[in-house]
Amino acid sequence: MTTTLDAIAGTAAARAILAGRPRPARPGTLSVALAFGGRALRKIRRTPVQLFDVVVHPVVFTLMFTYLFGGAIGGSTGRYLGYLVPGILVMTLLVTTGTTGAALSIDLASGVFDRFRTLSIRPAAVLVGALLGDVVRYALASAVVVGLGLALGFRPHGNVPGVVAAVLLVVAFGISLSWVWTALAMVMRSPGAVLGVTQAVLYPLSFFSNIFVIPATLPGWLRAVVNANPVTHLVTAVRGLMSGTAPGGQVAWILLACALLTAVFAPLSLRLFRTR
């Protein structure tokens, strides 16, 4: 009985002390997002296998298509390399976005996001922070593709400004597409299922595009499919920027697509995160 009374008295005293102190300010959205971005980077450091698709994928596809098919498709490996590298850049970042939903699904299944929802932070900061970590992966993948291309003889006529603009355009599209996979991860509970769906969408979009071949060489029905593929427009814009021609219409179309994807799926992801 005495112990119980002492415990009650201690609790009351603690409440009185806390009541006399000012309430801590709510952390800002930006600082929380940066904290969760750092968390995503630490996860990559502790599990380097997450960088497999960032490093190995572009190296394998670039070498394979350049030296196995470069002579047949482009006439020579040197000429084909200039056509291939912008396409591999797009394909690599598209495939890399697929792991965004899978990683988020793992966190959701482990219950860690349930604990995040109990914190006095804005829910949007949690999702934005995860995407900030992905931006680093996208930048690393872009460096691998461009660096390997330069080592093999790729010489973009757009020089550094054109290459930087092309990379920024692909990264912007990758971020907007990541919102789609984020919403998918909120609906599907299995990380394997999320990754399976993303790969089933991304690989056909990549191969039925102008990444590897010129659409004019394809049969009419297939050429129509390739020309209607949004990835084709993205690759065309990237090739133009790297070559120094700056295709304004294609770039504007891609930026509009980025804005639409973000405007639709970012609020949807946030709503699903709050109600899940």
TrEMBL record:
<keyword id="KW-1003">Cell membrane</keyword>
<feature type="transmembrane region" description="Helical">
    <location>
        <begin position="51"/>
        <end position="74"/>
    </location>
</feature>
<dbReference type="InterPro" id="IPR051784">
    <property type="entry name" value="Nod_factor_ABC_transporter"/>
</dbReference>
<feature type="transmembrane region" description="Helical">
    <location>
        <begin position="163"/>
        <end position="188"/>
    </location>
</feature>
<feature type="transmembrane region" description="Helical">
    <location>
        <begin position="200"/>
        <end position="222"/>
    </location>
</feature>
<feature type="transmembrane region" description="Helical">
    <location>
        <begin position="80"/>
        <end position="104"/>
    </location>
</feature>
<keyword id="KW-0472">Membrane</keyword>
<protein>
    <recommendedName>
        <fullName>Transport permease protein</fullName>
    </recommendedName>
</protein>
<feature type="transmembrane region" description="Helical">
    <location>
        <begin position="125"/>
        <end position="151"/>
    </location>
</feature>
<feature type="domain" description="ABC transmembrane type-2">
    <location>
        <begin position="49"/>
        <end position="276"/>
    </location>
</feature>
<keyword id="KW-0046">Antibiotic resistance</keyword>
<dbReference type="InterPro" id="IPR047817">
    <property type="entry name" value="ABC2_TM_bact-type"/>
</dbReference>
<dbReference type="InterPro" id="IPR013525">
    <property type="entry name" value="ABC2_TM"/>
</dbReference>
<keyword id="KW-0812">Transmembrane</keyword>
<feature type="transmembrane region" description="Helical">
    <location>
        <begin position="251"/>
        <end position="273"/>
    </location>
</feature>
<keyword id="KW-1133">Transmembrane helix</keyword>
<comment type="similarity">
    <text>Belongs to the ABC-2 integral membrane protein family.</text>
</comment>
<dbReference type="InterPro" id="IPR000412">
    <property type="entry name" value="ABC_2_transport"/>
</dbReference>
<dbReference type="Pfam" id="PF01061">
    <property type="entry name" value="ABC2_membrane"/>
</dbReference>
<keyword id="KW-0813">Transport</keyword>
